[in-house]
Amino acid sequence: MRFVLVSYLAFAVAGCGAAAGDPAAGQPTSPAPGATSAAAPATNEPGTPPPPPTPGAPDCAGRVKLAGDFTWSFELGGRTRTANVHVPLAYDPSKRTPLVVNAHGYTDTAEGQASLSKMTETADANGFVVLHPQGVANSWNAGACCGTAMSSELDDVAFVGKLLDEAEAKLCVDPKRVFASGMSNGGFLAHRLACELDGRVAAVGSVAGLMTLAECAPKRAVPVLQFHGTSDYVVPYRGSISLGFPAVEDVVDAWAKRDGCTGAPTETYAKGDVTCVTHASCKDNAEVTLCTVEGGGHTWPGGMPVPALGKTSTAISASDALWSFFQKHPMP
């Protein structure tokens, strides 16, 4: 726990160029049917859709059985980039498997995000692959945030695209069930992926992360699930003019408008300190959900508590709720 606490304390004190947290979530739903289309080992440019399978070729030809924890590394933009990979024991190389990219917060690490979110436990229980990528200098370029990645204008969207290429080449990944989530700066990145990698990422979730890009024009309606605590002092729920952060509800309303949602949101979850409201009448069967944690801090609901950053709700597991939301929203 100490490495997460120290890194998040550093973030809380130092702040971030223009964002680092936000809310969103969803309530448990029934699993969505998996897609059956295949993707050949990727040889295309990072961030672009993989080529279609050769007609008549078997699904996932050449994939081998593996399970456990691995570290992948590759060169991109003159740097060595890495990601931790968790493959559940239930993984079957002959069947298309869902995948979740789960990004860490500013000053944190891939290992820290795995411990904080407990996403690998959710992956083991539900049989999906989870990738915990590592940001350069523990940061992501999410447009208006954060640190070295932002100031150096690193292309972290291309990094995630290349990481998905690696996954599709080495594992039997279902290209219709690839999702992205993140905490704080990682949540900002998830929003950016919804804007700029919507051809590959089916739906996104953000915990204490905001969308602050000046422009966002995905080619389809992207489902978004957002969690946020009302007492988050790092990324205030009601926004901050001095930090350049919009209010959380404004971020969610903007996604509802972008996704063509109509009508007022309805309450879809209420337990303890957590209330979720959902815009359900959206284009492409998308949904936009905001889960508000009353009195919650800059923390991951249901995850590892970090007392210095405020209350961690136990009324919901953000990781489980994200997975339920993702199951409901494969790529159309």
Short key terms for the protein model shown above:
single chain; 332 residues; alpha/beta; Rossmann fold; ten-stranded mixed β-sheet; 8 helices; globular
Description of the structure:
The protein has helices at about 1-15, 110-115, 120-125, 145-150, 155-170, 185-195, 250-260, 320-330; strands at about 70-75, 80-85, 95-105, 130-135, 175-185, 205, 225-230, 265-270, 275-280, 290-295. The protein has about 325 residues and is α/β, with parallel strands linked by helices. It has a single domain (about 1-30, about 65-330), classed as Rossmann fold (3-Layer(aba) Sandwich), CATH 3.40.50.1820. The protein has a 10-stranded mixed beta sheet with strand order 1-2-4-3-5-6-7-10-9-8, sandwiched between helices. Strand 1 (about 70-75) and strand 2 form a beta hairpin. The longest helix is centred in the middle third of the chain and has 15 residues, at about 155-170.
